[in-house]
């Protein structure tokens, strides 16, 4: 319907409604004995002024399927002004006002016009919307964000969700209605409410919710059959990046149960901005994220060094596009850290101020079967790039390590521990500040269980877990990269930095959450226990007993003391590793990585 057609239709409808109100009002007021001319003039005046005021207040431009209190107030103004103006004219002409008649007409006028408009809103909400087979939706959070979500869903024809109730822990809101939806209880009532109200969908609408609180709510939602989604972050809503009806799935990262690590921007800017920075392993999941975050601090030049040409090409293309309006020079170097001459050449050519060493072999079972490659890449490769950094007087060298280097039971963990020792040794002989950073498991990285679990779920299961009691510390890729950068700012030399990663997570719980987040029941997919793989431990540690400092050096970051360094033994392994049997090499690595020097042991302190 065109605007003119719609306007003509509304004028015709309102004319009939006003005349009906006039005639019924006259009957009710028993004023039909008034002279015909008096009643006729009053009626014409009311009708004329109704249309004039309706045009003035844009009544005919309103979309009535979204009618609210604001529209009702406009109708009340129009009716009141039309009746009042007509009464004044009536008094001017006839020197008398039938007050009873005008009061009754005012009431009927308001009822007929307002009722006709709001009938469409009610019809739409109660009939049309109900017949569209929309998913019954429970909104967790009856605050301003939750109300915005409910209002948006109620208005939207396109949304496939129909809000039916609120959940909120504020007891003062319980049993009250908001936008016609009841607040039916707190978080503990989610399971019973979802069952009794046949909920298909749950939206967590608390943008300011911390991860611990989200985890608590999600555990309750996971007990239901409903799909659970979450409202975007509050800052994204405020800045207009997303709207309140753009929900996203809850991610495993949301359930870590602690606040993410934040950066000290000033300290990082001091040693990165306008400097030349080199990242080894720049094509990997952690190395590429380091490149993204370093670029945000506008270094003069960023060297992307890696062995895989496709991954280096991909991150280079991404950075060139994202930072095309900056003066950052991105340089790619396809090189192997096992090549000593190439490392010296790269360092001499670019003379970086900062080196982030993220290149390494990290897969535990693969390194158990290939200990020679683990030594070549993790120890020899680290020695090559560290010595090259020393000779070219790099300011800061940050090595990415792992919690598997603590009391290692695997070849991978052992080689990373020995690489840490070499880094700590280099700090004692060099002007370069050498430090290491230990991570737990990084969610979403190529070596993480998350991609494996997702593939298994996509295939219909089962999800394979090695042991029901296996636990791990977890962090996100951005967190891991921030920790590396912050370590460079905090480095005095020789330290091992560790993130306080909260409570460890059981792998089986992680698998169950991921199945639920993917929209399946655990029974549909299934979980299968396969047994522990070679080199695996049931739990990981972040610092050995003789490395522990009890205070944080930065919020959520701890620092380890320098422990024993067995340089001669490391050099002996490097001179013989290619000539000895794989099993003998494995035993030597584990023995040296777990060796204690009693003269340097420190008293135990708890974190």
What does the secondary structure layout of this molecule look like, with pairings?
Blueprint: H1 3-29, H2 36-56, H3 69-94, H4 99-128, E1 135-140, H5 144-155, E2 161-167, E3 177-178, E4 181-183, H6 190-196, E5 201-204, H7 211-221, E6 227-230, H8 234-238, E7 248-249, H9 265-272, E8 276-280, H10 285-295, E9 301-306, H11 309-322, E10 329-334, H12 340-350, E11 354-357, H13 364-369, H14 371-391, E12 396-402, H15 411-429, E13 433-439, E14 441-443, H16 449-458, E15 463-465, E16 471-472, E17 474-476, H17 477-490, E18 496-499, E19 505-506, H18 507-517, H19 522-525, E20 527-529, E21 548-554, E22 557-560, H20 567-576, H21 582-593
Parallel strand pairs: 1-2, 1-5, 2-4, 5-6, 8-9, 8-11, 9-10, 11-12, 12-13, 13-18, 14-17, 15-20
Antiparallel strand pairs: 3-4, 6-7, 16-19, 18-22, 21-22
Helix pairs in contact: 1-2, 1-4, 2-3, 3-4, 9-17, 10-17, 12-14, 14-15, 15-21
Protein name: FlaA1/EpsC-like NDP-sugar epimerase
Keywords: Membrane, Transmembrane, Transmembrane helix
Family: Belongs to the polysaccharide synthase family.
Number of helices: 21
- Strand order, sheet with most strands: 10-9-8-11-12-13-18-22-21
Q: What is the CA–CA distance across the termini?
A: 71 Å
- The percent range for helix content is 40-55%
Give the class-level CATH name of the largest domain. Alpha Beta
Task: Report low-confidence residues grouped into runs of 5 or more.
Answer: 237-242, 597-607
What's the count of strands?
A: 22
CATH superfamily of the largest domain: NAD(P)-binding Rossmann-like Domain
What is the rounded Rg?
A: 35 Å
Q: Quick one: biggest sheet?
A: 9 strands, mixed
CATH architecture of the largest domain: 3-Layer(aba) Sandwich
Q: Kindly give the count of domains.
A: 3
Transmembrane segments: 7-28, 40-60, 72-93, 99-120
Protein name: FlaA1/EpsC-like NDP-sugar epimerase
InterPro entries: NAD(P)-bd_dom_sf, Polysac_CapD-like, Polysaccharide_Synthase-Rel
Organism: Cytobacillus purgationiresistens
């Amino acid at each position: 319907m065109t605007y003119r057609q719609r306007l003509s239709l509304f004028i015709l409808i309102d004319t009939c409604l006003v005349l009906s109100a006039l005639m019924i009002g006259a009957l009710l007021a028993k004023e039909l004995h008034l002279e015909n001319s008096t009643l006729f003039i009053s009626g014409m005046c009311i009708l004329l002024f109704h249309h004039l005021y309706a045009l003035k207040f844009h009544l005919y431009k309103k979309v009535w399927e979204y009618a609210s209190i604001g529209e009702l107030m406009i109708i009340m103004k129009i009716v009141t002004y039309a009746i009042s103006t007509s009464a004044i004219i009536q008094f001017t002409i006839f020197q008398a006002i039938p007050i009873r008649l005008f009061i009754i007409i005012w009431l009927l006028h308001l009822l007929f016009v307002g009722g006709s408009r709001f009938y469409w809103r009610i019809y739409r909400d109660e009939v049309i919307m109900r017949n569209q087979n929309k998913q019954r939706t429970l909104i967790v959070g009856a605050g301003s964000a939750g109300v915005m979500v409910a209002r948006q869903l109620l208005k939207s024809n396109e949304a496939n969700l129909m809000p039916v109730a609120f959940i909120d822990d504020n007891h003062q809101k319980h049993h009250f209605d908001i936008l016609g939806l009841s607040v039916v209880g707190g978080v503990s009532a989610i399971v019973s409410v979802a069952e009794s109200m046949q909920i298909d969908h749950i939206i967590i609408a608390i943008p300011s919710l911390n991860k611990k609180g989200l985890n608590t709510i999600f555990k309750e939602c996971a007990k239901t059959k409903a799909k659970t989604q979450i409202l975007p972050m509050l800052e994204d809503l405020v800045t207009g990046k997303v709207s309140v009806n753009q929900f996203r799935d809850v991610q495993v990262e949301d359930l870590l149960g602690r606040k993410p690590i934040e950066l000290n921007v000033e300290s990082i800017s001091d040693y990165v901005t306008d400097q030349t920075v080199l990242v080894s392993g720049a094509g990997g999941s952690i190395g590429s994220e380091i490149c993204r975050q370093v670029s945000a601090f506008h270094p003069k030049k960023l060297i992307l060094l890696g062995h895989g040409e496709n991954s280096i090409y991909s991150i280079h293309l991404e950075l060139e596009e994202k930072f095309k309006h900056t003066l950052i020079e991105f340089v790619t170097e396809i090189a192997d850290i096992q090549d000593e001459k190439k490392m010296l050449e790269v360092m001499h050519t670019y003379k970086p101020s900062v080196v982030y060493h993220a290149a390494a072999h990290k897969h535990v079972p693969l390194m158990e079967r290939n200990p020679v490659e683990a030594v070549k890449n993790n120890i020899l490769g680290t020695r090559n790039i560290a010595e090259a950094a020393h000779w070219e007087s790099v300011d800061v060298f940050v090595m990415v390590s792992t919690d598997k280097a603590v009391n290692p039971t695997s070849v991978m963990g052992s080689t990373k521990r020995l690489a840490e020792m070499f880094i700590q040794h280099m700090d004692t002989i060099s002007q370069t500040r050498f430090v290491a950073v230990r991570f737990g498991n990084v969610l979403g990285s190529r070596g993480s269980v998350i991609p494996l679990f997702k593939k298994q779920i996509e295939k219909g299961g089962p999800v394979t877990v090695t042991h029901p009691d296996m636990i791990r510390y977890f962090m996100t890729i951005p967190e891991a990269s921030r920790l590396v950068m912050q370590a460079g700012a905090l480095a005095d030399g020789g330290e091992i930095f560790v993130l306080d990663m909260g409570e460890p997570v059981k792998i089986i719980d992680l698998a169950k959450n991921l199945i639920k987040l993917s929209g399946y029941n655990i029974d549909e997919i299934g979980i299968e226990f396969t047994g522990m793989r070679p080199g695996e431990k049931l739990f990981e540690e972040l610092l050995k007993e003789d490395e522990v400092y009890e205070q944080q050096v930065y919020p959520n970051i701890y620092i380890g003391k320098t422990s024993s360094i067995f340089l001669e033994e490391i050099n002996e392994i490097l001179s013989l590793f290619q000539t000895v049997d794989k099993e003998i090499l494995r035993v030597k690595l584990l023995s040296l990585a777990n060796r204690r020097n009693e003269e340097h042991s420190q008293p135990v302190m708890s974190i």
